[in-house]
Amino acid sequence: MELFYSPTSPYARKVRVLARELDLMSLIKEVKVVPSEKPEALMARTPLARVPMLTTKDGLTLPESSLIARYLIKQHFPAAVPNWADLRYEALCSGMLDMAITVVMDRRRENHQDDAWIASRLANIQSTLAGIYEEWRESFPEKGLAVVSLACALDYLSFRLPELEWEKHYPALADWLHEVLDCQFYRQTDPRKV
Ligand SMILES: N[C@@H](CCC(=O)N[C@@H](CS)C(=O)NCC(=O)O)C(=O)O
Fold first, then answer.
1. Is residue 188 a part of any domain in this protein?
2. Domain that holds residue 61
3. For residue 194, what pLDDT band results from cuts at 50, 70 and 90?
4. 52 Cα: distance to centroid of ligand 1 (angstroms)
5. Is 28 in the same domain as 72?
6. Is the CB of 11 under 6 A from ligand 1?
């Protein structure tokens, strides 16, 4: 299998960590690309030209991190059925990342969106984070897709939107994140070490 990724993509990081946790790396060749350069190898497999993108052992091209995550879990646990609670956390974290990335990309453009647009994206991230935090305080899975999704999303916020200062607002969640990140799979995929 081939997994196309870029080192700074939090969606790609999620499936790269998951593949390592599920002990699938002997079956996967990672291919580093810069999607904005529209590399031929990526374009030939997905006209979306986004990462992550997985070519499965049957030659299917899976162009979406949630799909790839479900495929990887099925490879490790053939009898796995959808874990809706985990998938829900994954979707919430992906939604937060979608908003974070639009803000990060917008800041790189010459013609920026107006401040109200940016503020509304940041407010959505903050309200989603507040909701996740309340649930996390009550109970949260110890491992698996929910943990990987949340850790990759939170670390992306720390990396690209430090002004949110989420770690200051939720110190217990920040402690949890640093414990999770203290593992070789996260170190190997740290976007700061590009
Ligand atoms: N919903 C997609 C999002 C993937 C995505 O937006 N990837 C970005 C990198 S973080 C990308 O490849 N962008 C390339 C581009 O927009 O040119 C997923 O979960 O896989």
1. no
2. 2-80
3. confident
4. 7
5. yes
6. yes
- The preferred substitution site among 38, 51, 87, 90 for testing ligand 1, maximizing ligand atoms within 8 Å of CB, is 51
Determine whether the shortest distance from the Cβ of 63 to ligand 1 is under 6 A: no
Q: What is the CATH number for 36?
A: 3.40.30.10
d(CA 194, CA 32): 11
Total of domains in the chain: 2
Residue 189 lies in a domain: no
pLDDT in tens, 57-96: 999 999 999 999 999 999 999 999 999 999 999 999 999 9
Last residue of a domain, one of 80, 109, 136: 80
Residue 164, both tokens = 């949110």
Q: Which atom of ligand 1 is nearest to the CA of 68?
A: 20
Positive or negative torsion for Cα 100, 32, 155, 77: positive
pLDDT digits over 146-162, tens only?
999 999 999 999 999 99
Record the tokens describing residue 130, joined without a space: 């507040």
Question: Token pair of 21, please?
Answer: 């946790």
Establish if 191 belongs to a structural domain.
no
pTM: 0.96
Q: Contact at 8 Å (CB) between 45 and 53? A: yes
- CA of residue 139 to ligand 1 center, whole Å: 30
